[in-house]
Amino acid sequence: MTTSSLIRSVASPDEIAAAAARLRQCVRSRQLTARQVIEILERWGAALRGAELDAIPGVPFLRLWLRRGTLEPIVIQELGPGALAGEWRDERGARLRIFPQGVIGHWPAANIEIQPLLSLSCALLGGNAGLVRVPDSLMQQTAAMLARLGEVDGGSVLAERIFVAGFDHARDDLQRAMAAGVDGAMIWGGAEAISQIRALPFPPWARLAMFGPRLSVAAMDGDCWADGPERAAWCQRIARDVWQFDQQACSSPQALFLERRAGSDVQAFVRELAAALAAENRVHPRHEIHPALTSAICLARAAWLFGDAARQAVFPATPDWTLLIGAGPDLPQPVQGRTLNILLVDELAEPIARFDGTVQTLGLAIKDAAKEAALAQAAGRNGVDRIVKLGRMHVFGSPWDGSDMIRPMVRLVRHVPSNSGHSASGQAGKPS
Prior knowledge:
The chain has 432 residues and is an alpha/beta fold.
């Protein structure tokens, strides 16, 4: 099966309906275990290399996600060890087994290049087929990544379960045809986009998993940011978290809260972080920037400096990166485009107490383990779904947004044998 048959621009609802019917027949006629899927995904991840692919934001993380060492523990965690081989398991006189939901529709956000394939991989791990709607802006990158799958997928084992459709989001007839043809959906994006897709005519049995707009923040205690020997390493980790996905991912830090420490100079930390951002810019320079984002960054710089005489800002002449330094526990309005607010607070518990469910990921650098445990407890109570070490804010894993990634799109089938004289495993049982 060629890459061109996996991804194409579609113009009519009939094309989508035909693709969905073919995918559903494939799922019903050919069983595919999670172990088989992982073997192919790992080969695919290893093949995602080269100048063209390395230039796509997020590809290094997609390679990590597609590794066996990443995926097998997630499958076992969510579905149980028997799911790797598609086995039944005995449970109190019954048998339980994971089966695919069927055809899973994917509506990725338009601003994350790897999201269509990240979402698709979760459905494939459950033995499903994937019908993916890709925005026009991501067609070229998605085609380049799918081409490598075609090179390593002998027999088109996964390829026959994939159809990627490119069409404008305004084509309501195509959106409705896609919703009507699937058995489940993974929906990513802003509040308006999710509301519109959720209102489509999905079958009554379809399962919907939604990943809406969130933002993420970082936090460091004084013992970490003021530690001269370790400060450079922490700043490098922060810079990498800021750089990935151009700060457009829900896991991108938009603000960094620093806990005040008497006698420590925050300017030394700012200089170190500015140097790390400049170094990251040299290694991964921005090749283009939308004029609207350039304008937003310039306006954010000016508004920050004019808003309060005590505020500071550090940035180059270009809009490549920006540090806005101030104080206070309130979350600022995100600017994105590698713009990071650095906010001093007396205690890190102050901003965490103000989280309201908007924050997805909290990246931490805390010296004292007991203190970090208390902050994690408070963050979890206030809606944070992921609490990780700085430098690992984009490391994909499950659960994501507080939910499993594979489990929502599979069915756990229960079989109680009709022969009451035998146990579920086929062994003779004692009479009751």
